[in-house]
Amino acid sequence: MAKSPTQVVTNKVRFSYVHVFERYSNNGGEPKFSTTILINKKDKVTIERLKAAAAAARAAYKDKNGKALPPESDAPIPGCGTVHDGDGLRPGGEPFGPECKGHYVLTATSKNPPKVVDEDKNEIIDRQDFYSGCYGKAIINAFGYKQSGNAGVSFGLGAVQKLEDGEPLGGGVTNVNDFDEDDDEVF
Predict the structure, then answer these.
(1) 125: which residues sit within 8 A by CB, 6+ positions away?
(2) For a surface tag, which of 6, 17, 57, 133 has the fewest beta carbons within 10 Å of its beta carbon?
(3) For the CA atoms of 95, 101, 103, 104, what is the dihedral angle to 10 degrees?
(4) Could you report the per-residue pLDDT of 126-179, keeping only the tens digit for each?
């Protein structure tokens, strides 16, 4: 079976804001499964796949609705207004975190749980094995949307594959062996 022209399989990316095991509500919106995907700007193959999928999603939207989506020419990847430049500012005006430098930033969501697998395509059950900061691949699908005064191309989350560990993002990891350090008695 041929894959859809709106489907993208990324090369190696880094995952952030990982919510692939349970739904999460951002700013009181509908709870969804999601992850932010950090795509290295040097990854020309994934970038070309995003452009092609966005163009296919725009064409499908026009075929279905009889109207074209408004252009998103100011997007770092033309046609993908939901892809942001990690060296710039977030849509709210604050800077992206240091982990986003040199990357495009894309958040993919789904109402349904995505497949979460390891490098051998075995299902990952332990939630601690797939976390913000790990590296892997993602299968995402571009789609056109128009709702609540917003319109453009966004990405649905189909599956994620962990390829390797990385420095955890947000909150870090506590090492219980730190309790072994000598401390001065204060009491």
Answers:
(1) none
(2) 17
(3) 10
(4) 999 999 999 999 999 999 988 877 888 999 999 999 999 999 997 555 555 555
